[in-house]
Specification:
- Strands 1, 2, 3, 4 and 5 form a five-stranded mixed β-sheet that branches.
- It is globular, with a radius of gyration of 16 Å.
- Strand 1 and strand 2 form a beta hairpin.
- With 184 residues, it is of the alpha+beta class.
- The chain contains four helices and five strands, in the order H-H-H-E-E-H-E-E-E.
- 31% of the residues are buried.
- Helices cover 26% and strands 46% of the residues.
């Protein structure tokens, strides 16, 4: 059985050079634009998601996650974190490692909603890991109305493009970097 140490080492090796926040102002503006577009796309595909935006303590939006695998797999995406009401808190990234029968590549979008302020604070503290048992709901009309929070989170995914055969185990690791105005 694959243990967390192996997955953590794989994550660190594969994504050591990836940065949590965009380094250039133009890249930050592009990420913000991509995040707003992703939110609009999620809400168009499933209008019931509005309830999560209104009631959740906060949410993290990953507008483009690239996933690829050939036995061992990995995924990476940058995103932004918001508090209830749309207040921008900072940047985040997601790194995923998997092992199993996997082949192909795909792009997808992901939103993680946090039920309470404590759930959001746990994410903001950094080094947040979502286990392989966590499930994401593929967005379709009315899907959000049938989903409840698990461990304080509700995760939604919207596929963009690609082809992936994936029967694997793994986990996602998240890091957070506060917005410059929030740093002390």
């Amino acid at each position: 059985m694959v243990n967390r140490t192996y997955i953590s080492i794989l994550l660190l090796t594969v994504f050591a050079g990836c940065s949590t926040s965009p380094s250039q102002p133009g890249q930050r503006e592009q990420l913000h634009s991509d995040v707003q577009e992703a939110i609009g796309d999620f809400q168009r595909h499933d209008p019931t998601l509005r309830t999560y935006f209104e009631r959740s303590a906060g949410y993290a939006v990953f507008p483009k996650v690239l996933k690829g695998a050939f036995g061992l797999g990995g995924a990476y995406g940058q995103g932004m974190v918001f508090e209830k009401g749309g207040l921008f808190l900072g940047y985040c990234d997601m790194k995923q490692a998997t092992i199993g029968f996997s082949f192909g590549g795909e792009y997808f979008r992901e939103i993680i909603f946090f039920r309470s302020g404590q759930d959001l604070r746990t994410f903001l503290e950094g080094n947040f890991v979502m286990s392989a048992q966590a499930t994401a709901t593929v967005v379709s009309v009315g899907a959000a109305a049938k989903v409840d929070y698990q461990d304080g989170m509700a995760v939604f995914v919207l596929a963009d493009s690609g082809l992936m055969i994936d029967v694997s185990i793994g986990g996602q690791r998240f890091e957070f970097e506060p917005a410059p105005r929030l740093m002390n």
